[in-house]
Amino acid sequence: MRAIKSFVMRAGRMTECQQRGIDLGWPQFGLELADGARDFDAVFGRQAPRTFEIGFGMGHSTLDMAAAAPEQDFIGVEVHKPGVGALLNGVMTQNLSNIRVYSCDALEVLRQCVADASLDRVLLYFPDPWHKARHHKRRIVQPAFAELVRQKLKVGGVLHMATDWEAYAEHMLEVMNVAPGYRNQAADGRCVERPAERPVTKFERRGERLGHGVWDLKFERVD
């Protein structure tokens, strides 16, 4: 049976800058799923705290985080080519060396390319909420997702999720609060305040002006 995907492949025009990112940036910063398990110390040329971001969109937050924390390494995964091109163009423009990029299904990268207990953080910012009830099965946050991420996080590593759909935040809490091997870092067992390390996006600022909420959840691997 084909696995249910949490994303839909969209056709999108590439701008000149995005195409430049693909043409010039991919050979240096792109990684291939087909290459299988990777030694990321060798990929980055150092040992450093490592963050894995699922679905980085157009890459703005990824660039901000990597620029603010040059002592950390970031592995970003995105299926949509314009976003991949935009991030790679930004990496070159800002002369960053601590980002590597996959353009495929992030769950397959976790399964095939990332060693167990090797990640310090996994980020899932504003995933598709699939708000219609008949589409809830497409939501990426499910028990199998929680277990896969737990395997890849170091003990003490953190899964950080953010959503602007309250119903999806409730769904995340339902899944994660019963997932084995995790501790909710929120004092009340629900959501945390927006951590300083998560950049505020233009989309988020617009939502705040319109009175929309954003919910951040942090779950730490404890065993």
Summarize it.
The chain contains eight helices and eight strands; from the N terminus they run αβαβαβαβαβαβαβαβ. The chain has 223 residues and is of the alpha/beta class. It has an eight-stranded mixed beta sheet with strand order 1-4-3-2-5-6-8-7, with helices on both faces.
Physical arrangement of strands within the biggest beta sheet: 1-4-3-2-5-6-8-7
Count of DSSP E strands?
8
**Could you name the ranges where pLDDT drops below 50 across 5 or more consecutive residues?**
none
Helix segment count?
8
Rg, please?
17 Å
Mean pLDDT: 92
Q: Topology as H/E string?
A: HEHEHEHEHEHEHEHE
Instruction: Name the shape in a single word.
Output: globular
The main sheet comes to: 8 strands, mixed
Helix content estimate: 25-40%
**% residues in beta strands:** 15-25%
Measured between the Cα atoms of the first and last residue, the distance is 31 Å
Sheet/helix structural class:
alpha/beta
What does this structure look like?
The chain is of the alpha/beta class. It is built from 8 helices and 8 strands, in the order H-E-H-E-H-E-H-E-H-E-H-E-H-E-H-E. The chain has helices spanning 16-29, 40-44, 60-68, 81-93, 106-113, 143-152, 166-176, 202-209; strands at 30-31, 50-54, 73-77, 99-102, 119-125, 153-163, 182-184, 215-221. The protein has an 8-stranded mixed beta sheet with strand order 1-4-3-2-5-6-8-7, sandwiched between helices. Helix 1 packs across helix 4 (81-93). The longest helix is centred in the N-terminal third of the chain and has 14 residues, at 16-29. The protein is globular.
